[in-house]
Amino acid sequence: MNRSFSLLLVLLAVCSACFRDHIVQPIEVKQETYPIPGDTFFPEGIAYDASQGFFYTGSIGNGDILKVNVQTGETSLFAAGAAQNRPTCNGLKLDSKGRLWVCGGTQNKIQVLNPDGTLLKNWDLSAFAATGFINDCILDDKYVYFTDSQNKQLYRTSVALAQPGDMEQWLTFTDQQIPYTSPGVNANGIVLTADGNYLIVVISSSGKLYRIDTSTKAIAEIQLNTPVNAGDGLWLENQTLYVSRNVTNQIFPVTLSGDYLQGTVGAGFGDNLLFNTTMAKAGPYFLVVNGQLNRRSGPTPPVLPFSISRVTIP
């Protein structure tokens, strides 16, 4: 009996050691600021790979996409814009296969890159609209959705297949459903609810939020206590929607009702941000892009180097 008990204790000790060896510790986001090289880079989109500890950010200026180590700050070129016929780059998202989806902004294009940075597929959307502004995207394990800040429509394609299929003009809407201004930046940031039932889109020009049913395509305005004008990138965490409002240089939380039809805008947070565009959650922080897109032209030059800020989530 004693010999059997001793053997059991040895086995438990070995199993415990093995378990400890296989615990994956979260990768620490060590730096408060991550410098981005290039005097005309003007970063806009960001995507974070929590399993590897890298984030990706793309340039409005030349379409280059950089890969940055969150522990060391080391920066490398992931995909060159010129080599992939991508002169500009807006929103970015990573899918479960490690592929990077790229919004082509005013080029009216969408691309998806392989995990090694090579181009997997390119969609030219001129068949749907002669011009467009593909601004941001969101995905789950089935589909990826894209906003068009110029045209009243959302695009969609499948992410489930190894080789992505055709891009579809998934939703078109009217000014009565979602008013657009011209000129102006309209549909911008986009998120999916955790159950996949709804999309939430911010209209930068009006500061309004809209809930879109992914099954019926029904559109409903989310009633807010105050608009979130200049809303850019979005992040949804349970019932709190975080809105990056570029002109204000802050991020604003919006507490949403259970049906996502009402929202209360709270106090802004984030220090020393510079025309913050998009963001990605990394543990207790947001990695926030200081796009400085308001300084692309005019008398005020951008603050160099360009940067990504680590912002503590209240």
Automatic annotation (TrEMBL):
> Domain of life here?
Bacteria
Q: Which one Pfam family would you cite for this protein?
A: SGL
Q: Which GO terms describe its molecular function?
A: hydrolase activity
Q: Which UniProt keywords apply?
A: Hydrolase, Signal
InterPro entries with a match to the protein in the record: 6-blade_b-propeller_TolB-like (IPR011042), SGL (IPR013658), SMP-30/CGR1_Lactonase (IPR051262)
Ranges for domain SMP-30/Gluconolactonase/LRE-like region come to 40-127
Stored SUPFAM superfamilies:
Calcium-dependent phosphotriesterase
Q: Where is the signal peptide?
A: 1-19
| PANTHER family from the UniProt entry | LACTONASE DRP35, LIPOPROTEIN-RELATED
What's the protein called, per UniProt? SMP-30/Gluconolactonase/LRE-like region domain-containing protein
Q: Which species is this record about?
A: Larkinella terrae
